[in-house]
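Need Aminoglycoside phosphotransferase's 3D structure for a figure. Predict it.
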Amino acid sequence: MSAEMDKHILKEAAGAFATDGAAVSCERYGSGHINDTFRLICENRPYILQRMNTDIFQDPVSLMRNIEGVTTFLRQEVIKNSGDPDRETLNLIKTREGAPFYVDSRGNYWRMYLFIEGATCYNLVEKPEDFYQSGKAFGHFQRLLSQYPARELAETIPGFHDTPGRFRAFRKAVEEDICGRASEVQNEIRFAMDREQDMGLAMDMLAKGELPLRVTHNDTKLNNIMIDDKTGQAICIIDLDTVMPGLSIFDFGDSIRFGANTAQEDETDLSRVSLSIPLFEIYTRGFLEGCAGSLTGAEVKMLPQGSRLMTLECGIRFLTDYLSGDTYFKTAREKHNLDRCRTQFGLVADMEKKWGEMERIVEDVCKGLDKNKTKVKPG
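Structure prediction for Aminoglycoside phosphotransferase:
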């Protein structure tokens, strides 16, 4: 939109919501790349105003139904736990007609939240404590939503962590080889093919009822956590667009995939790629402390596997995209997706070498929590 149109549409959208006092100013806010986010200052309090990206999330009505249900439930849970419901969960502001979102005269979808004051999001893990706080926050998110009916949630990105489905797409890309690249990546193809049977492990357990369906966040990065400016403690999980039904071990595993890797996601020197055992340990401790006994024994036992599966899935997605002509992930150089794939597969290989250590860490953390009476559910 042009600047003039922006101003007009912003005024229309801001005026549609039931704010406390008249608008004073509205400025772009944050570093997000998907939605357009603004900080709206009103006479009595600030708000977050967002224009939703309906190119990526093509069913905004279902998405907002998810967010409305989850945030309402979270608010009730925070109140039950004597917390601050205005700071410890996102709070939707309804339109003046009582709707959870607004569609402007141009067809754009908007939503509004209370602005959480005295807290900041950080883009990078600067010290181990940050990763611990991240684990604790996402574990706490799991605990608060452990009784939420996950099956009522819509899939905002269908098949997002359907690991067998991702493998089928990869196999098809290999067979079609539309860019003639398969011959140069035979080692990577073989690496993935050798682990085909593993891709269905978690989904098979879900189908058999051995793993429960949970509310999952599906974007468990540090910058989706609000950190209190005074205490340094994580207080609120944000960016709920990808909240869907899923597996707790996948949220855990994706955090380990990008947070406990000793190298960047697109590192070309594979000797730098490894699983940081200290970071794996500190995140596991934070996550299980945050879960506070809400996970089943089967879920806890599968945490290392969740880490491996999410890393393997990500590597397969990068390889699939490379074979298909780099049409999904943005690339900055030739063979960028192949470099990303090799980094993920290198991390998988290192996890497999350190498998015993990963399992021991989970067991030891559980024993420590048991002593502090944070029990794990049977199962």
